[in-house]
Amino acid sequence: MAALLLAGSFITILNQTLMITAIPPIMDEMNVSANSAQWLTTVFMLVNGVMIPVTAFLIERFSTRQLFLSAMGIFTVGTILGGIAPNFPMLLFGRVVQSMGAGVMLPLMQTVFLMIFPVERRGTAMGYIGLVISFAPAIGPALSGWITSEFSWRFLFWLILPLPILIIIVAYFILKNVTKLTYPTVDPLSIILSSAGFGGLLYGFTLAGNAGWSSPFTLVVLAGSSAALALFITRQLKMEHPMLEFRVFRYPVFSITTGIAMIAFLGLIGSETLIPLYMQDMREFTAFESGLALLPGAVITAFMSPITGRIFDKIGARLLAVCGLIILTGATAAFSFLDIQTTFTTITVLYAIRMFGLSMVMMPVTTAGLNQLPNRLIPHGTAMSNTMRMVAASVGTAVLVTIMTSTTQSAGADPTIDHPAIFGVNTAFMVITALSIAGIALAFFVKKTHPPEEAEAASPARETDKEEASLHTSYGHSK
Fold first, then answer.
1. Is the separation of the CB atoms in 43 and 99 below 8 Å?
2. Integer angstrom CA distances of residue 94 from 47, 53, 66
3. Is the CB of residue 72 less than 8 Å from the CB of residue 20?
4. Which residues, other chains included, contact 434 with Cβ-Cβ below 8 Å and sequence gap of 6+?
5. C-alpha distance from residue 352 to each of 134, 184, 318, 379, 426 (Å)
6. b/e map of 99-132 (b: 16 or more CB within 10 Å)?
7. Most buried by CB count within 10 Å: which residue of 126, 224, 299, 402?
8. What DSSP string describes 249-276?
């Protein structure tokens, strides 16, 4: 079951970045602008951001088999639509359908892993999830560059297609139901507010990164999505059976570790955005070369994630997170000194070191936070954790791109700065460095936790006094 879930999630997460280097030939064939073609990647992330919060409700409403087979089936349909697309709107629709299935897979996999593995082995299990989360998106650009240079961009769909079909066939025979069904009632208003809030927020920050923060349309979208999100949160806190349980933030370690994971994931996506921009636009490396520079770091993460998972099972997350964030911060600080002569090897090595540090942070802190939650809140915890990471990446990328462009413009007026664009990239990396330092400070507050046993017998409708006592005790305090 674990291998099957990992394989399904790997295929779906890989598609987040698989279209990046295929954009130029798609622009030529379908006669669309760069801004339009970029939506092939952006829309995948947006729909993921909408689907992930809904997944907590779906996991409690449908069985593991139903949800997994449906998600992979939807993803397969989207892959076929993308492969046969005669025009750009159909291609974009295929990506939307793909991402609807993909958005369910990661929270579902994390929830099932936490259900089928005992607490003392969760670190190892989540280490393999870390492998998928870090490795799959990182190899996307390099793989895409090779496929589009050797074949047609349509092979990005056709070469992937047999894999989800095979996974569906195997899952039909071996996948078991492990999640507990509570059959919550459908609340259409919550789904609408969630989609408008999270989806609009991600869309708004994407607009900010492209059109700037002063764009009236950007400001309207951000204001509207913020209002929808506020209404959604208020409604969830008042409901007896909420679609997404925001009370998970009452657990201190979960809140702290979610904050650290947001910082780490923001740095990951931010770096994967800035490095290709620097290499391709400022140093004239090819898209394939910029993807290749990120590949060793992805391989190191793939190798280290299961190892750090086993270490987590023995010593907990605090020491791993502190050491990992120090390594990550040092490598990020080094990226703040890029110049016109920085070599391909230097970029590759620094990124590999950064990813080595990240492998010690991402899944250990996520697992530590989820370990504090009772089983009934795990679907909500995994959905919330993934949603917050997605929002952080979207917000962070928009902010970093804005910092880079505004710094480049101001540096262009300074005759002492030879390469304003590179100076802008360096400034953006300084911001990531500062955030990473804040992550180090937070890491010292991470404690080794276990699910509160008393909470398992608590009513699903509301927290009992016993669960609250257990909550505080696990954080090192009495009620």
1. yes
2. 12, 22, 22
3. no
4. none
5. 12, 45, 22, 32, 18
6. bbbbbbbbbbbbbbbbebeeeeebbbbbbbbbbb
7. 126
8. GGSHHHHHHHHHHHHHHHHHHHHHHHHH
Q: Identify the CA nearest to 133 among candidates 249, 298, 374, 293.
A: 298
- Collect all residues with Cβ–Cβ distance below 8 Å to 344 and sequence separation of at least 6: 285, 289, 293
Q: For residues 295 and 288, what is the distance between their CA atoms, to the nearest angstrom?
A: 11
> Measured between alpha carbons, how far is residue 284 from residues 46, 169, 213, 277 in Å?
30, 45, 28, 10
- For the range 29-34, what are the long-range contacts, defined as Cβ-Cβ under 8 Å and sequence gap of 24 or more? 29/153, 30/87, 30/88, 30/91, 32/88
Residue 353: closest CA among 329, 319, 377:
329
Amino acid of residue 123: G
**How many residues are given for the chain?**
479
Residue range(s) occupied by CATH 1.20.1250.20 in the chain: 1-184, 244-479
Q: CA 456 to CA 249: how far, in whole Å?
A: 18
**C-alpha 80: how far from its chain's center?**
25
Report how far residue 471's alpha carbon sits from residue 463's, in angstroms, rounded to the nearest whole number. 10
All residues at 6 or more sequence positions from 57 whose CB lies less than 8 Å from its CB, including other chains? 184, 191, 243, 244
User: In the structure encoding, which two tokens stand for residue 379, read together?
Assistant: 């679907």
pLDDT averaged per 10 residues, the chain (length 479): 88 82 82 76 79 84 91 95 92 92 87 84 83 77 78 89 94 87 81 88 77 82 92 89 87 93 89 84 81 85 88 90 95 94 94 93 89 86 86 80 85 83 93 95 84 46 42 42
Q: What is the architecture, at CATH level 2, of domain 244-479?
A: Up-down Bundle (1.20)
76 contacts 225 by C-beta, under 8 angstroms: no
Minimal CA–CA distance to 107: which of 387, 448, 430?
A: 387
Spatial separation of the C-alpha atoms in residues 128 and 309, rounded to whole Å: 8
Q: Is 86 exposed, middle or buried (0-12, 13-18, 19+ CB in 10 A)?
A: exposed
Q: What whole-number distance in Å separates Cα of residue 263 and Cα of residue 256?
A: 11
**Considering only CA atoms, which of 361, 380, 359, 357 is closest in space to residue 370?**
380
Cα torsion angle, 62, 66, 71, 75, sign: negative
Q: Which residue has the tokens 């740095």?
A: 267
- C-beta separation of 62 from 379 below 8 A: no
Class of domain 1-184: mainly alpha
